[in-house]
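Supplementary Note 2. Why include the ligand at all?

Several targets in our set were suspected to adopt different conformations when bound, so apo predictions alone were not considered sufficient. For every target with a known small-molecule partner we therefore ran a joint prediction. The input for 1-deoxynojirimycin is given below.
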Amino acid sequence: MTAVTQDTTHTDSIQRKWWKEAVVYQVYPMSFKDADGDGIGDLKGIISKLDYIKSLGVDVVWLNPVYQSPNRDNGYDISNYEAIMSRFGTMADFDSLLAGLHRRGLKLVMDLVVNHTSDQHPWFVQSRSSRSNPYRNFYHWWDAERGKPAHRYSFFDVNNEAWKYDSLTHAYYLHYFGDFQPDLNWENPQVRDSIFQMMRFWLDKGVDGFRMDVIPFISKDTTFPPLPPQYNGDFVKYYANGPHLHEYLRDMNRDVLSRYDCMSVAEGIGVTTATAHDFVDADRHELNMLYHFEGVSLGMVPGKFKEVQPGGVRLVDFKNLYSKWDSVFEQKGWGTVYLGNHDQPRMVTRWGNDDPQWRALSSKMLTTFLLTMRATPYYYAGDELGMTNIKFNRISDYRDVESLNMYDHLKKTGGNLQEFLRDQKITARDNGRTPFQWNNSRNAGFTTGTPWLRVNPNYLTINAETEGKDSTSCLNYFRKLIQIRKQRLVFVYGKYTELDKDNPSVYAYTRELDGKTILVLLNFTANTAEVNVGNDLAHASLLIDNYPHPSRTNLLQPYEAAVYEW
Ligand code: NOJ
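The joint prediction is reproduced in token form.
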């Protein structure tokens, strides 16, 4: 293995850490595998698929929330942080899952959802019950005698209104998400202590870290002034810049994270290149990584590349954005890269081409991008099969609180429902949440019952069993590329340089470390495309290519991905 400098005084970005070298595989428990036939995935289901996960070559599993919850936002509304949702199983099942992962040399990262709880959490039940209850200050209340509080935007509210009036105590409570997800009051030290204690509970069990849900939102100015003018209506940026945010993250690091060999990654909503370092630089003693939203926010509707769909995103803008984020962490901090997760449509539909002619090729091309950037890749279960958006026609097919609320909001305000349903086929979160396609038996082998969300009918051909037997499948391409990455630290720590920047069709870059060079060429279009990188490709060694007959020249076939080494 190439030697990497172990101790450099001035760069975080080359100091070796297991979480920098890892590939993270995200498992959405509701949709992964149902063992008991109730139509919802569960822990025993995941346990039954641990050998599959191991076979991928990934290192870390990030598990979306499995805590006790009324499950109105698929587990992001927690009613007991130290218990398992009964539909998912028991704490004993959780312990077996953790042991099974560790036995296979895999790590487990839990979702930490602490900006808000469920309204069924005992803290909120108490808090709501009277103005003098000891838990009153666990949440944000605004007594109605003071008049209506200044507007705050809510993501999952039919009226977009984050203050909900509660007649029981004649006061409003704050909920940035659904009205069933009241925001915790982090300014209260008892809240912070309770959360830190809960984190230690899981780390003492042996979990290997946390993915922190909307963590930039935790600190609030409790005077709740009208939105300060510099934010110009940008709620997300305002929410992500609370007055004591970094103080709380440093406390969390000091009291919890620094005491374990664990990894931490912020869902970096609202974080910009200007604020990113405050979260992740090693000398800040806060978190290890964050994942920003700029990439997935690029031209969300219709969310296709211009070359594929008029009015879509320009590849040059996509390239500039990822190059910019690489340079942010060139000296300090560490980045992440992802194209899909449970809040996003399927990556191949959004960023590739899910037309049957191009689906597998473009999916492998995107996988190549994710596994060759200088950042920790977060790879969403099902993307290794090239799973696609299901594209529901009717609102009644959707289960996601976000889509359902947006629909009701538009209905109430006279919006264009047809246009909304059309756009949801590309953007809706449920597209990324359809059951994992295991095989071509009923319900794709996901459940023997009725699946909670419809299975994509393309499971007959796109499934793990069929792809496992095909050496040219998306699945086996993913496995192969992970091995290539793992054998060469240049993929992790190597310097990134973009080439042929103005090329509208091809993304080209090198990675360099200790005299080794990797060249990555990615044609993001359905046409043949030329790239100008000034190398003699005919004599370079080709590590991987998504075509059976690689071009080996500067003329790339549609959606061709090629990785060279010298
Ligand atoms: C972000 C999570 O990823 C999403 O699924 C959830 O709905 C919101 N945060 C609220 O917790």
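The first strand starts at residue 24 and ends at 27. The pocket of 1-deoxynojirimycin is lined by residues 73, 76, 113, 177, 213-214, 267, 342-343 (CB under 6 Å). Comparable summaries for the other entries are listed in the accompanying table.
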